[in-house]
Design a protein that fits this description.
1 helix; mainly beta; Pnp Oxidase, Chain A; 203 residues; 9-stranded antiparallel sheet; two-stranded antiparallel ribbon; 13 strands
Length: 203
């Protein structure tokens, strides 16, 4: 296959959705204006030895970690994550007693010769921790102070083509899905960010 001049840039339109008591997701809500998103795979390989030789390798894929940087905190998101509460006098930071998994949506832009498009993506099994904050004094111009959320993306189990049961491959293994990316022209692209999709295997 010939090389492709393709460039990915920008981060925009962050949304989040939490599951209800039945496991179905609520309608996605806007999070905040995005500054940056960094994702890193948590993957290790453990070599196995016999007779002094490396005879096999066990792979361990624990999903992803990352940092979401936004320009301001969203009160509703903080409350939904269990680390903020409205009290007498204002919004209080509270001790976060649990990590509540949810789905997170974002968009990037794609550039190929003669064509620019928007790529849409959902992350699954997301938890976020207390945001880091850093403030600097204003000098000649205003200093913008971003808010950085540490993310862990554990993923969810892939469902079969009907979406009812967990999918298993030919060796009986279940499959974890950490992200779905949808590009222009693919099925469901127009409404991809309107609700959280169920990861389903092909027929």
């Amino acid at each position: 296959m010939a090389k492709k001049a393709q460039f990915r840039f920008n981060i925009k339109n962050i949304k989040y959705a939490f599951p209800d008591e039945t496991g179905m997701y609520d309608a996605p809500k806007d999070l905040a204006y995005a500054n940056s998103l960094a994702l890193e795979s948590v993957f290790t390989e453990n070599p196995l030895y016999g007779d002094g030789l490396k005879i096999a390798t066990v792979a361990s894929d624990q999903g992803k970690t990352g940092t979401l940087s936004v320009i301001n905190k969203d009160e509703d998101y903080e409350i939904a994550c269990g680390r903020a509460k409205k009290i007498n006098g204002g919004l209080a930071d509270t001790q976060q007693l649990a990590s509540i998994e949810h789905a997170m949506y974002y968009e990037t832009e794609d550039l190929e010769p003669g064509k620019k498009s928007t790529i849409k993506a959902w992350l699954f099994g997301v938890t976020s921790g207390q945001a880091g904050e850093s403030y600097e004094q204003t000098r000649d111009t205003e200093t913008i102070n971003a808010i950085d959320y540490p993310l862990t993306i554990r993923g969810v189990l892939l469902k079969d083509s009907l979406g009812a049961d967990n999918y298993t491959d030919e060796n009986g293994n279940t499959v974890m899905i950490t992200r779905i990316v949808c590009k222009p022209g693919e099925t469901g692209y127009e409404t991809f960010g309107d609700s959280v999709p169920i990861p389903k295997a092909l027929d």
